[in-house]
């Protein structure tokens, strides 16, 4: 009717539409009204829309899911989660690795669990964690959902029940890290998990990586609470998750292969009467141990076989596993006991680390660690030669690249190159590139004994001013690509929101699309499915599809910019005002041109829209059947 108002809010015209199902894309228009998709088809009338976005030559797809994040913290400080949204991520799963805020700050009896549990495991500075804990005003899983509902969220947020915090809630902090639960405490944990499932939590998370330690004294030698739970506790709690047909997200006890197999057999319908959905977070293409990827894929085949009748998915990272270190402040140091002692000191405690590094007994232990398997004839030497090493740090200077330090000449160079130049300088007194380098060389023992002494001197002299990186996994892009499209794995493990200065995998979804782009549009359609509808179905979420009536979470990608993008050159070290701290981010230019969340444009042509961060865009997503409040096997 003439003069009537437009019936659509936004119309995307002439896009190549990937609907999330994996079907080949089609050239179509997509109309949005009231936060939902109102119409799909060619030639929709532009006059029916208030705003028309010309998407010719671009891809339109459902908003992307990031299924392994630690945004629980950042969402309290900057609820719009800008680094996620600019990458086309419109749904994030939080409370991974047994850590979360479902039960509030839990500051009882002098304990500060948010700081204690998150600081070393997720490498988030304590002052940031205290800032989060100070803001907490809830103490219950239902209250937490209500709190999230009130925030001006950017993407949709999907919480799980975190096991470490569950143990603390049922047992108290000190007991949660010192003993098994009593029968009464186990029953309380079961009741709390059941309550969370009834409230719509999509799953339950645990952690078994043996190098996840507490950060506050006197417990810096202890691991986080989830690791004190015996198998019998895991079995009972995942039994609740199984009854609700929700997800158990776990990490494997990496040093105990029998425990890995036993734990993940909990997925089996053959053994337990009904399958349990399990997703396991583990880097499996490890540089120092080539057997893990084969064993991991074999395990996935066994657990998903007809014989076992499970539903199990490892998560695959789309990027080289590149880890930055500030001196030894890095996740990989936690795996090595002699370096772990340095990580027990607070980030600012340079004097504490210096005392340790100048202790002759510690130096002797450091030297034994450095040369283990690198000299002589031993089983360790054979395992190293066969690439079956137990630790992820190669201990090779050629694998360690200096990002920045007080000697500008070293930025971008491997430590091996600097070491060799030092040796030449000590022989001839010449060859230093600058006065700064000559001064640095003069500080080394002369003659320098070996590369072990070289690395130790760097740590002593520069501490956290020495920033360097290494790649511990996913060095082979062909294998990385193969894993991303293995139907028994899920793209994920981005760890977004954690390891503020150590990792930057926010671009994992875009890297997956880039891998697929090289193989044609059918493979892109498959990649879109793997990043949208497939994980949404796995977690029981009503997102991930372009269909009439669906929530309008949409992303527009410029395929030419995607093809031209070099992911290794878009990582930046920036100061985030929200954190009052530096952070690693990556910001692909012009790849994502528009991001819409619930019908509202959040990102457009390289900038956030004016209302982003001020109004609520996304929402807290519960499991799609939560309103029934009845376990699936009881719903007739």
Please tag this protein with its features.
single chain; 636 residues; alpha/beta; 6-stranded parallel β-sheet; 23 strands; disordered C terminus
Give your account of this protein's structure.
This protein is an alpha/beta fold and 636 residues long. The strands form five sheets. Strands 1, 2, 3, 4, 5, 18, 21, 22 and 23 form a nine-stranded mixed sheet that branches. Strands 9-10-11-12-13-17 form a six-stranded parallel sheet, sandwiched between helices. The protein has a three-stranded parallel sheet with strand order 6-7-8, with no helix packed on it. Strand 2 and strand 3 form a beta hairpin. Helix 3 (113-121) packs antiparallel against helix 4 (126-135) and helix 21 (508-517) packs antiparallel against helix 22. Residues 628-636 have low confidence and may be disordered. Its cofactor is Zn(2+). InterPro entries: Amidohydro-rel, Metal-dep_hydrolase_composite, Metal_Hydrolase, Metallo-dep_Hydrolases_sf. Pfam families: Amidohydro_1. This is Amidohydrolase family protein. Residues 524-600 form the Amidohydrolase-related domain.
Total number of β-strand segments? Answer: 23
Category by helix and strand content:
alpha/beta
- Give the integer mean of the pLDDT values: 95
Percent helix range: 25-40%
Largest sheet, in brief, is: 9 strands, mixed
Number of helices: 24
What global shape is seen?
A: globular
Radius of gyration: 25 Å
Low-confidence stretches: 628-636
Strand content is: 15-25%
Distance between the termini: 47 Å
């Amino acid at each position: 009717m003439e003069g009537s108002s437009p019936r659509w809010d936004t119309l995307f015209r002439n896009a190549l539409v990937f609907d999330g199902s994996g079907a080949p894309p089609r050239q179509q228009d997509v109309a949005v009204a009231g936060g939902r998709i109102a119409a799909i088809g060619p030639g929709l009338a532009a006059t029916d829309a208030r705003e028309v976005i010309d998407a010719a030559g671009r891809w339109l797809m459902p908003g992307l899911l990031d299924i392994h994040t630690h945004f629980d913290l950042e969402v309290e400080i900057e609820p719009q989660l800008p680094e996620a949204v600019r990458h086309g991520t419109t749904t994030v799963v939080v409370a991974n690795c047994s850590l979360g805020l479902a039960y509030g700050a839990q500051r009882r009896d002098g304990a500060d669990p948010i700081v204690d549990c998150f600081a070393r495991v997720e490498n988030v500075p304590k002052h940031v964690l205290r800032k989060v804990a100070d803001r907490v005003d809830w103490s219950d899983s239902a209250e937490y959902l209500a709190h999230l509902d009130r925030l001006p969220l950017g993407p949709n947020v999907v919480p799980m029940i975190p096991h470490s915090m569950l143990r603390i809630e049922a047992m108290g902090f000190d007991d949660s890290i010192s003993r098994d639960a009593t029968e009464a405490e186990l029953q309380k944990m079961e009741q709390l998990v059941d309550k969370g499932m009834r409230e719509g939590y999509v799953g339950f998370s645990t952690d078994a990586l043996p190098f996840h330690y507490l950060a506050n004294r006197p417990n810096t030698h202890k691991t986080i609470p989830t690791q004190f739970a015996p198998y019998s506790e895991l079995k009972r709690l995942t039994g609740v998750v199984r009854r609700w047909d929700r997800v158990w997200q776990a990490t494997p006890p990496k040093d105990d292969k029998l425990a890995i197999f036993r734990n993940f057999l909990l997925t089996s319908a053959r053994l337990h009467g009904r399958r349990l959905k399990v997703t396991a977070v583990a880097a499996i293409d490890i540089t120092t141990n080539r057997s893990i990827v084969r064993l991991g894929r074999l395990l996935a085949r066994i657990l998903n076989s007809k014989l076992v009748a499970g539903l199990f998915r490892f998560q695959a990272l789309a990027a080289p596993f590149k880890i930055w270190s500030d001196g030894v402040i890095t996740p990989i140091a936690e795996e090595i006991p002699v370096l772990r002692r340095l990580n027990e000191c607070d980030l600012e405690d340079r004097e504490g680390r210096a005392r340790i590094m100048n202790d002759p007994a510690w130096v002797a232990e450091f030297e034994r660690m450095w040369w283990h398997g690198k000299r002589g004839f031993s089983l360790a030497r054979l395992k190293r030669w066969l690439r079956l090493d137990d630790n992820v740090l190669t201990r090779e200077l050629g694998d360690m690249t200096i990002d920045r330090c007080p000697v500008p000449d070293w930025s971008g160079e491997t430590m091996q190159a600097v070491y060799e130049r030092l040796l030449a300088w000590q022989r001839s007194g010449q060859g230093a590139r600058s006065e700064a380098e000559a001064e640095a060389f003069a500080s080394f023992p002369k003659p320098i004994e070996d590369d072990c002494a070289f690395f130790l001197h760097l740590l002593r002299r520069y501490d956290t001013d020495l920033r360097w990186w290494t790649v511990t996994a996913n060095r082979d892009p062909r294998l990385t690509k193969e894993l991303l499209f293995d139907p028994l794995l899920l793209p994920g493990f981005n760890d977004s929101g954690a390891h503020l200065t150590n990792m930057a995998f926010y671009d994992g979804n875009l890297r997956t699309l880039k891998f697929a782009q090289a193989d044609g549009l059918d493979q892109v359609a498959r990649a879109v499915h793997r990043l949208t509808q497939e994980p949404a179905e796995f977690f029981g979420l009503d997102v991930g599809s372009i269909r009439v009536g669906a929530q309008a979470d949409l992303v527009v990608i410029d395929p030419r910019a995607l093809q031209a993008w070099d992911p290794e050159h878009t990582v930046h070290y920036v100061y985030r005002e929200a954190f009052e701290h530096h952070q690693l981010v990556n910001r692909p230019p012009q790849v994502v041109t528009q991001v819409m969340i619930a019908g509202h444009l959040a990102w457009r042509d390289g900038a956030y829209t004016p209302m982003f961060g001020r109004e609520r865009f996304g929402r807290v997503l519960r499991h799609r059947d939560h309103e029934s409040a009845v376990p699936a096997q009881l719903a007739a």
